[in-house]
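Board notes (copied after class):
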Amino acid sequence: MQLSLATRIFLGYAVVLATFAAVSIFSVSEMHRNQLEIRLVSEGYLHLSQDAAAIETLHQNQAKDTERLLDEPSADTRRTLIRLARLWFPQVMAQRLNAAREKVKEVLEFAPTFEAPFVRDLAQRLNEVDSRYREYQAAATKVYAALEDSHSERAHVAQLMSELKQLEGSIGRDIRFIHAILEKRISEQVTKAERRERRTGVTIIGLSVLAIAVGLLATAISARALRPVRRLIEGASRIGRGDYGTQLEVRGADEISVLAREFNHMAKSLQEREQQLKQQQEALLQAEKLAAIGRISAQIAHEVRNPLSSIGLNVELLEDALARAQFASADDAKEARALLSAVTREVDRLTEMTDEYLRLGRIPKPALSAEDLNQVLEKVLNFSREEMERSHVEVVQRLDPRTPRVLADEAQLRQVFLNLLRNSRESMDGGGKLLVASRPVDGSAEVIFSDSGRGMSRDIQERIFEPFFSTKEGGTGLGLAVSRQILQAHGGTIRCESEPGSGTTFVIRLPRA
């Protein structure tokens, strides 16, 4: 039968307990008394002494800062010190005094009967200090007000400061007295406990010699069984420093081994959650950036679009007029028409550019519905077939029929796919091969666009989704930024894989319906 770790340790120390039974019967009463006195000192008087020392130090610091107010030449520094004295010192002093009084109440609950009068007297003294400190705070407030008032007479300020110093001295003496009686009480209790401990120890030593050997043996066995705990502590410390990749190698079937495996699982979950939070934060920042850019772009595009429409209309009217006009020669007529054609092309190009800016600023919330991803891809590829053939791009379709339906807005998905098709075509200047594939992956659907174009460097890959970043001459740099924004609104992702001269692959993942 597999014994648990706790059972094995219990059995080991049961032998030790049996060995020490005789010693325990003799020493239990003395140990109990020692325990009460040690607890009284360690959990009571020592903490109270530390609190008294902290209160004394705080009071001295406040007194020094108050003294400095008179000698401070800078009005700004004086105001800063006064603000500190008003906001920080009273709050901290109140916390210290409250902590000390609460500790006195705790000590009174477990203090022996013969120590209760001393503890009650200590509580009374702390209450008096608290009351005196309230008076001191009121006097300090008057001093601060006089110092802040530029019309206050120096003699009046000096008088208020003198009264404040008297209160400081009185409170300081009370605090030092409390500290002194606590130190004295601690010394008396420690001396008494030491005498009792020596007397009890001499009696127990003779009976404990045999039990020591048994205890050492049980300790060695327990230490060996608990050795993996150190690894758990080190692992927890590394996780506390942010190293979520920590994994513990602890074999076995006892509780510590099970705990180690659960610890490994927890570390892995924390690492995944940290990555998710980082990705979500980056996505949020990018979305906020795109929203701001979209609003600005939409405003600018709106202002530019109206003049462009007017220019385009006037150019069309001018073309009609040129068709009826007479020129000195055919070359003059041809040159005039060529110039108008150039203007028309530029107007169309600028109009298309303003439309892209407007789309960036007016991307609607997707109307999600269950869509057949393969069917959407086929429609987009059929629509682009003629354009791809003219560019000598061979499109290879590998649409997996097992690809699940996805939650998507078909019109927005078409916009994303058309943009990726256009980017792939433009990256293959003299033609090439484009693979368009779909597949199911981990309960989601993936779409792959992989071209044989010129590829891109790592630096460019890190920036391709930034608004207005483009490697194409005349490009707006909005296509991929808008595409990623659309996919994020669908709960999907897009990533790029590319090497210079080895083509580019875009992988889109969408949640299944």
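Comment from the instructor: The chain has a mean pLDDT of 77. The longest strand covers residues 432-441.
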